[in-house]
Specification:
Length: 726
């Protein structure tokens, strides 16, 4: 029997030594270091007990007990720290000091056992029994020590069980199994005290087995697998909350961030409902106190079998605050933009109304037989009016471009006609300034192209006007040519001048809105600073590009290239020979409509005069009304108008109300008669607004003959007679 016990003790020492060597050789982490310390303590415990077993006298036995206790008192505290580490629960420094103090206290008592009877009331050597052994008469302090050890073991079992309950993952199973090993010494302790084998204490052996058991389990379950630890460490320390659940929504793991956000996840009763709540908000943002948390979920698989889900909790508070601020700023900007639009609408309206009179009246005078002198002066008035209107249109155009509502109108056009128009429009003014106008048009350009000719003309007028404004002597040069590129035919044009030029540092800002470079020098030169930005936007809207080259003091050249469709293979040749109708100031009358009756409603007398004057040129029968009320009365007394032209801004009853009242009258005629709004409000979206309000069409003031003719043609198609020049 004795030999068996000694052999068992030697074997366990052998194992303990093996573990100490293995752990010492491993690249140990901090928790493994604790296990190494525990294994050393266990080894000392085993060696000490081996000496006690083999002792032949009381002195040797006491010496052996001292060695044994050196391991014994530190074995369990180190294992407590180790198990706590495994369970991710931190033991505070105070707790560590308490454990160390207890160990030192008990060991001091054991080490000085010969000098007092605190631990053993008495001891002596007994030669009888299973083998010669020391008999120890134990005191209450001894039992205190045993209880202390017992408590430490129970604490560890408790920690293991709690960890397992919380995370039923592989780590949890490993730690539970490891701590369950404590049941051996827990149960063996009372057996030892019962002294079943006289003189033999089974506790040291059981303590040793626990250290060996721990080592085996920890390795089997790879609890300290470095890669896994690194993963756990990363997940534990990332800024995002991380929760792992199994397929039945049971919590497997969560990191500190998730725990701080949702402490309820730790409470069994609330765990399920909280997880369900999180799952119900996947990809959404939820409020957690002041924080905005975005919830995401990803499934995870083991060999293609769905095992559960990871829930990620992203703190989006900063983004939320930032976005809120952006929304606020956007709203403020929109508010400001709205105010700008209202201002533009008002300005446009206020200026367009008198402009309607100026241009319209000049137009009417030009239709009459007047002397050449008068014609020239009236032409000047009309042209000045038109340039003023151009400025207003430029600003309106810009607001259209700004809101991305600029529409391109494609049509076939003859390049020679475009050049002619430009030359006749600008040429006179260039000559007036005693500048040379050089025009170079490549003869190889296709004669007819398809594109938004009006916009191209607008861009060239802008560039030529600038050249004219900023050149005092020398020349202005217009060059037009074509290039065959990969994307097809590209129409190119350049406007050069020998004017003041632009400083190099100002060039990058040229195409910025409201930018007027070299302001001091150019103060006396009129302009809005919108021309070039508009040109750039238009060119780009047509798929082209615009560039500038300039030398300060020597002149500038603006060039653009815009892709255009080629309509005919015929070449332009000598552009000066192209046939172009000459302007005599008379508006083109494309048709006559003698049988058509129109009612014009406007509260401004002069506007009525202009509109009726223009319609009379078409031989139409025109009646007028000075208010919405008068319009309703006239319409009811004679239901014969083929169309009604209605001003929008009128006192008492505006155009929309007058139209609505008209539509409410009994009878099909009132529901069908076309009502066309005449308005000076030409800003972006105005047309849509009027059409939505129920008007059939929209003609902006100042009234253009072409625009009003198109409208009449649409609603009185059968009654018009085309004139020769159409
Ligand atoms: P503006 O209505 O002021 O002419 P633009 O956008 O057309 O607005 O031009 C912006 C500025 O660019 C002008 O004020 C002027 O300083 C400069 N600029 C434009 N064209 C020329 C040119 N041909 N020569 C010299 N400076 C020019």
């Amino acid at each position: 029997m004795y030999e068996v016990l000694v052999t068992l003790q030697v074997i366990s020492i052998g194992f303990s030594l093996g573990i100490v060597i293995l752990l010492a050789l491993e690249n140990t982490s901090k928790p493994q270091m604790l296990l190494l310390l525990a294994s050393v303590a266990s080894l000392l415990n085993g060696i000490g007990y081996f000496y006690e077993l083999t002792a032949k006298c009381v002195e040797t036995a006491i010496m052996a007990i001292k060695i044994q206790y050196l391991g014994y008192v530190f074995l369990l505290p180190t294992l407590v720290l180790f198990v706590a580490r495994c369970c991710h629960s931190e033991i505070k420094t105070k707790g560590k000091w308490v454990l160390l103090s207890f160990g030192v206290f008990f060991y001091t008592i054991v080490a000085t056992v010969e000098y007092h009877s605190l631990f053993y009331a008495d001891y002596y050597f007994e030669m009888s029994g299973a083998f010669p052994h020391i008999v120890l008469v134990k005191t209450p302090i001894y039992y205190c020590f045993i209880s202390y050890c017992w408590i430490l073991m129970m604490i560890q079992v408790g920690m293991g069980a709690r960890y397992y309950r919380k995370y039923k993952n592989r780590d949890g199973v490993g730690i539970l199994l490891a701590t369950c090993g404590y049941f051996v010494p827990i149960l063996v302790m009372p057996l030892g005290m019962a002294n079943i084998i006289e003189g033999y204490d089974p506790v040291p052996l059981s303590q040793q087995t626990i250290a060996i058991w721990m080592y085996v389990i920890i390795n089997k379950y790879r609890i300290f697998d470095s890669a896994q630890m690194a993963r756990n460490d990363i997940i534990g320390n990332i800024a995002e909350g991380y929760v792992v659940i199994d397929i039945s929504n049971k919590l497997l793991f969560m990191n500190k961030v998730a725990e701080n956000l949702f402490p309820e996840l730790n409470q069994a009763q609330e765990q399920e409902s909280r997880i369900e709540e999180l799952l119900a908000h996947v990809t959404e943002t939820i409020d957690v106190g002041e924080q905005k948390i975005e919830v995401h979920m990803t499934p995870f698989y083991d060999h293609n079998v769905l095992k559960g889900y990871t829930i990620w909790l992203f703190d989006k508070t900063d983004e939320y605050v930032y976005t809120q601020r952006l929304i606020e700023l956007k709203e403020q900007a929109e508010q400001a933009n709205k105010a700008k639009s209202v201002f533009l609408a008002n300005m446009s309206h206020e200026i367009r109304t008198p402009m309607n009179a100026i241009i319209g009246m000049s137009e009417l005078v030009l239709q009459e037989e007047v002397s050449a002198k008068v014609r020239e002066k009236v032409l000047d008035i009309r042209n000045a009016g038109k340039s003023l209107l151009d400025i207003i249109n430029e600003i309106l155009d810009f607001s259209k471009i700004e809101t991305g509502k600029m529409e391109l109108v494609k049509a076939n056009y003859k390049v020679a006609v475009t050049v002619h128009n430009l030359v006749s429009l600008i040429g006179v003014r260039i000559k007036e300034k005693n500048l040379e106008f050089i025009i170079e048009v490549d003869e190889e350009i296709p004669a007819e192209l398809c594109g938004d000719e009006m916009r191209i003309r607008q861009i060239l007028i802008n560039l030529l006007n600038n050249a004219l404004k900023f050149t005092e002597k020398g020349y202005i040069k217009l060059r037009v040519w074509g290039e065959e590129r990969e994307e097809g035919f590209v129409l190119c044009a350049g406007v050069g001048d020998s004017g003041i030029g632009i400083k190099e540092e100002h060039i990058p800002n040229l195409f910025n809105s409201y930018e007027r470079v070299n302001y001091v020098k150019n103060r006396s030169i009129e302009g809005t600073g919108l021309g070039l930005p508009i040109c750039k936007q238009m060119v780009e809207a047509m798929g082209g590009s615009i560039t500038v080259e300039s030398r300060y003091g020597f002149g500038s050249t603006f060039s653009f290239a815009i892709p255009q469709e080629v309509v005919s293979e015929e070449r332009i040749g000598d552009w000066t020979k192209a046939e172009v109708k000459k302007e005599n100031g008379k508006a083109k009358i494309p048709f006559k409509a003698p049988g058509v009756r129109a009612l014009i409603v406007d509260d401004t007398k002069i506007n009525l005069k202009v509109a009726s004057g223009l319609l009379k040129l078409l031989d139409m029968t025109v009646d007028t009304a000075a208010s919405g009320q008068e319009c309703l009365e006239k319409v009811q007394s004679q239901e014969e108008y083929d169309m009604i032209f209605m001003d929008y801004m009128m006192p008492e009853m505006d155009g929309i109300e007058a139209m609505n009242r008209l539509r409410e009258l009994e009878g099909d005629y009132y529901k069908q008669v076309p009502v066309i709004v005449l308005t000076a409000n030409a800003i972006n979206g105005a047309k849509e607004m009027f059409l939505e309000a129920g008007f059939q069409d929209f003609v902006s003031k100042p009234i253009e003959m072409d625009a009003i003719c198109d409208c009449i043609k649409k609603y009185a198609k059968n009654k018009i007679i085309l004139t020769e020049n159409d």
